Amino acid sequence: MAISYNGDVSVVLDSQHRTPGNLRAFVQATLRSIRTGKSSDVRFSSTEKIDVVPLTTKRMEFSYKDGEDYVFSDPETFETVTVTPQIVGDGKNYLIENGSVTMTFVSDKAVEVDVPPSVVLTVTDAPDGIKGDSANNVMKTVQIETGITVQAPLFIKTGERIKIDTRTGKYMERA
Q1: What is the pLDDT of residues 45-94, one digit of tens each?
Q2: What does pTM read for this prediction?
Q3: How far apart are CA 43 and CA 58, in angstroms?
Q4: Separation CA 104–CA 174 (nearest Å)
C-alpha cells in the first residue's frame, strides 16, 4: 500500500507490528519515497493516524530499453511509460520485447514492476556436455536471450526455448 508521510507519498515495502514487554505497541515500517526513491525505516505509534493513498495496477507490455530506462506500453491505449532501473529491479533479467508485466501506479506514477512467476526464453549459448558426464543430474551453464546465465540440464542446446522461474532464476523445464 501507499501512504502520505511527511508531505510525500511513500510505498510501504515491509511492516511489522510489535508489542515489547510493558511498552506501548508500535508498527515498524520500511517506506520508499516516490519522489526521491530512497528507502527509510519508520516507527509509528499505535495511536497515530495514517492517510492511505490509493494504488492502481495495470497490465503493461515491455517495449524497449532507452539508455538506462525501460519503456512499457499499455496494450489497450498504447500509451507509454518510462521507468528507471531501480523500479524494475531484478525483473530486468526477464524482460523481452512484448513481454507482459503488472505495473503498480500511485497518482499516475509507476512505483513497482512485477514480472510473471515464470517466463519462456530462448537459449543463445549452450556449450556441449562432456561425454560420459551424465551419471547424475548434471547441469551446465547456458546463456539466455536477456544476457543472464542459468544452470540447465546437459541436453539443452542453443536455440531451444526454456521456462525459467523468475523468483529464483532457475531452470524449470523445456518449453
Answers
A1: 878 888 888 888 888 888 888 888 888 888 888 888 888 888 887 888 88
A2: 0.66
A3: 31
A4: 31
Cell 536477456: give the residue.
Answer: 146
Taken in order of first residue, the domains within the chain and their CATH numbers are: 2-53 (2.30.30.30), 55-114 (2.40.50.140), 118-174 (2.40.50.140)
- Grid cell 500509451 is found at 79
